[in-house]
Design goal:
The complex is a heterodimer of chains A (375) and B (364). Chain A has 375 residues and is α/β, with parallel strands linked by helices. In chain A, α1 packs across α8. The relative contact order of chain B is 0.13. Helix content of chain B is 37%, strand content 14%. In chain B, the strands form three sheets. A six-stranded parallel sheet of chain B has the order 3-2-1-4-5-6, with helices on both faces. A three-stranded antiparallel sheet of chain B has the order 7-8-9. A two-stranded antiparallel ribbon of chain B has the order 10-11. Chain B is elongated, with a radius of gyration of 24 Å. In chain B, α5 packs across α7 and α6 packs across α7. The two termini of chain B are 39 Å apart. Classes of the chains: A alpha/beta (375), B alpha/beta (364). The interface between A and B is large, with 146 and 147 residues. β12 of chain A pairs antiparallel with β6 of chain B.
Chain lengths: 375, 364
């Protein structure tokens, strides 16, 4: 890729876990300079839930954190300290975008909400990603991944035929994964508007609404017929003659979609290994595929396309969901250690000298180690 | 109310080409990307084959038999019927491409070469990554969920893998294509050459399912469907079901919420211990749910910061307080549907009705 599409855009990234941190990561992948803010007192929870051990430096070894935060610079600034908040306000003057997914009100109470930062930088695009959105009676509700499978409607349509609803579960947390795919495009649209008009905006994303949006036709159909009964239908799909997963002779499951019903499919699969069954079905023009697990996904480089990449330490990280000019991603930075770029960024953007940096470190505003007691 | 001349993508023109004989799941993705741009104000011209986009005839249906799927995916667009099998239709398309900013299309399509050669930035939606060389492989959205590893994650370990409800592969790819489209518009707007964008449903599903890759890389074994062995279970309650969800740090609050002394057992103090004793924990907490409604459970759980999720059907979502208060569901004639899931300085983007099927262009 020649000129990176978002070259010259700088992002102040308070994003945590997937919904927030990955929106910033997608902006970084497009060329934005993303400055991730954490503090010794509050790490991105991915550093904690993914830690492989408790040895010194554990907070810098989480695979989930490494997957999601590559191509960013990392700062650690204590937002509970007025000096930390002052540094953030100074940084905001040099940034085009803020991404945050704190519980509603956290940044407002710190004097770092949109109303505060807009006064410092009227062009700022402030993307607030939350469970329920910034308004409404449930705005303070907490959720975690699969909470939103339940409350969005997805779980009601997921499950074995006639049985109870299902959620995607903690190893998928599906609603968290799709937010950034939408939010990134809206942020880019808003940056374009800010360039044109000179004015930024407040973007209020509800993760629950994003998940319900993926069921738009079901909600629309329900509004036409409130009595419309929607129950779990396993793998069947309206308008499709026959569709299910079938167990093969080697114990592997395959997914098959048929344009006309065929009662011989189940015994056919049971008497063939999965690879042979899929090949035979594909040769007949029938859509079929093995139900891949993680081992299969890591082994099949052609299938992986551009979705996985290696950073310069050889670590596996998240790639791109799309390719631009035929290319995948360039991992220019491995995910930052806690506070790795605090000094570099405060010198470069704010012109801090050694004495100022030392004062911040001595007073605990900046750090490179967690204050474990407060995690 | 939003003035129509005050929408963020209003100065852009997008051509969305629905060629004939393209797999339906690709068409849903293309249509969703175009719809988002159209609701944001772009002029989106949808090129349909003679007889119309097959999605016009796809379920679910509204009272008069119209397709709810088509109505949802094509709000705020304009439509034009062109026979792209003929020279006149292709010439007409070529002229449109010369004045558009971006062209959305599906691969494989007979007009792919034409679109890639036009002045509009091409955004193509495919089933598989280029590395698979699978342009002729039969396609279904369900098979793509299997390839991407999503099916492996949902259901009971000793029973068949399950798909998620809705058109999740197509829609996640549609959201991705919209972000690619916004990237292309921003580059053009800044006077740069915009990158051509290619989105495959199979890559998007693997990207979404990245924890399968990271988990396998870290441990050597793949995560998979845990069903009744999972820490997160579905509990029946007085008026439906609730998803039990809590993070490791929220266990003390969860325990306090249920307030059964047996939960104080020291075996449950660590996440590993809770995972080993999932069945016992659920045997203890099941009665607590049975006597309560979803609403009671959500209110008392939220008061303690516990993120249990009541399960709502699409019909019930039409009346949920939060969606009503935020005006998330827009009116469309006699119907209601979700609007774009973002508020921009407090403003929502009300969709306009999907276009009727126009008469074919003369000579096309």
């Amino acid at each position: 890729m020649s000129a990176r599409p978002l070259a010259g855009v700088r992002v102040l990234d308070f994003g945590l876990l997937t919904a927030g941190a990955n929106t910033s990561a997608m902006l970084a992948d497009l060329g934005a300079d993303v400055i991730k803010i954490e503090s010794g007192a509050y790490l991105d929870p991915f550093r904690v839930v993914g830690k492989p051990d408790d040895d010194d430096g554990w907070w810098n070894r989480s695979p989930q954190f490494r997957f999601t935060n590559r191509n960013k610079r990392g700062l650690a600034l204590n937002l509970k300290d007025e000096d930390g908040r002052r540094v953030i306000r100074e940084l905001a003057a040099h940034c085009d975008v803020v991404v945050e997914n704190f519980r509603r009100g956290v940044l407002d109470r710190a004097g770092l909400g949109y109303a505060d930062l807009k006064k410092i930088n009227p062009r700022i695009v402030f993307a607030a990603i939350s469970s329920q959105g910034d308004t409404g009676p449930e705005r303070m509700n907490v959720s975690f991944g699969s909470t939103l499978d339940a409350t969005s409607g997805i779980a009601a349509l997921t499950g074995y035929e006639g049985e109870e609803p299902r959620i995607s579960g903690m190893d998928v947390n599906y609603p968290d994964q799709i937010v950034s795919l939408f939010a990134t495009g809206i942020v880019i649209t808003a940056v374009m508007e800010a360039r044109r008009t000179g004015g930024g905006c407040f973007l209020d994303f509800s993760q629950r609404e994003v998940a319900s949006f993926t069921l738009g036709e079901e909600i629309l159909a329900a509004s036409a017929d409130p009595a419309r009964a929607r129950t779990r239908q396993g793998n069947r799909q309206d308008g499709v003659a026959q569709q299910d997963t079938y167990k093969c002779r080697d114990g592997r499951w395959i997914a098959v979609t048929l344009a006309a019903p065929d009662t011989t499919l189940e015994p056919f699969c049971a008497s063939h290994d999965s690879a042979a069954a899929v090949a035979a079905l594909l040769a007949k023009g029938i859509a079929a595929a093995r139900c891949n697990d993680g081992v299969d996904l890591l082994a099949d480089k052609a299938l992986a396309g551009v979705t996985l990449a290696r950073d310069d330490t050889g670590g596996l990280v998240k790639g791109l969901p799309y390719r631009l000019d035929g290319q995948g991603i360039a991992i220019e930075r491995t995910a930052p250690d806690l506070g790795q770029h605090t000094v570099e960024v405060l010198r470069e953007l704010l012109g801090y000298d050694d004495a100022a940096l030392r004062r911040l470190a001595d007073s605990g505003v900046t750090s490179t180690t967690p204050n474990v007691g407060e995690i | 109310m939003t003035a129509p001349d005050d929408l963020p993508l209003q100065r852009f023109t997008i051509v969305e080409v629905n060629d004939r004989d393209v797999p339906l799941c690709l068409r849903l993705a293309t249509s969703l990307a175009g719809k988002i741009a159209a609701d944001l104000g772009a002029t989106v011209l949808k090129i349909e084959p003679p007889g119309g986009d097959p999605v016009r005839r796809a379920p679910p249906y509204l009272s008069q038999g119209e397709s709810a799927l088509f109505q949802f995916l094509n709000t705020s667009k304009r439509s034009l019927v062109l026979d792209l099998g003929g020279a006149a239709g292709r010439d007409a398309l070529a002229r449109l491409l010369d004045t558009a900013d971006v062209a959305l299309f599906e691969e494989p399509a007979s007009i792919a070469g034409l679109v890639r050669a036009g002045k509009a930035t091409p955004i193509e939606i495919a089933a598989f990554p280029v590395e698979m060389n699978a342009a002729t492989r039969p396609v279904s959205e369900f098979a793509i969920l299997a390839l991407g590893g999503l099916l492996h994650m949902v259901g009971e370990p000793d029973r068949k893998p399950l798909r998620l409800g809705g058109h999740q592969a197509s829609y996640a790819a549609g959201l991705t294509a919209f972000t690619g489209l916004a990237t292309a518009l921003a580059a053009r707007d800044a006077g740069h050459k915009a990158p051509a964008v290619r989105v495959s449903l199979a890559e998007v599903m693997q990207w979404v399912n990245w924890k399968a890759a990271s988990g396998t890389e870290a441990s050597g074994t793949s995560p998979g469907r845990e069903g009744k062995g999972s820490e997160f279970q579905i509990m029946p309650c007085k008026d439906g079901h609730v998803a039990v969800v809590y993070t490791a740090t929220q266990w003390p609050q969860t325990r306090a919420l249920i307030a059964d002394p047996r939960l104080m057992d020291s075996r449950f103090n660590t996440r590993a211990g809770r995972r080993q004793n999932v069945a016992e924990i659920y045997a203890i907490i099941t009665p607590w749910f049975a006597g309560r409604t979803r609403s009671d459970i959500q209110k008392t759980a939220q008061a303690k910061g516990v993120p249990f999720g009541p399960i709502f059907s699409p019909a019930e979502l039409l009346d949920t307080d939060q969606y009503v208060a935020r005006g998330f569901l827009a009116r469309l004639g006699a119907y209601r549907l979700p609007q774009l899931p973002v508020q921009w300085n407090g403003r929502s983007f009300a969709p306009r009705p999907a276009p009727n099927l126009p008469a074919p262009e003369l000579g096309a």
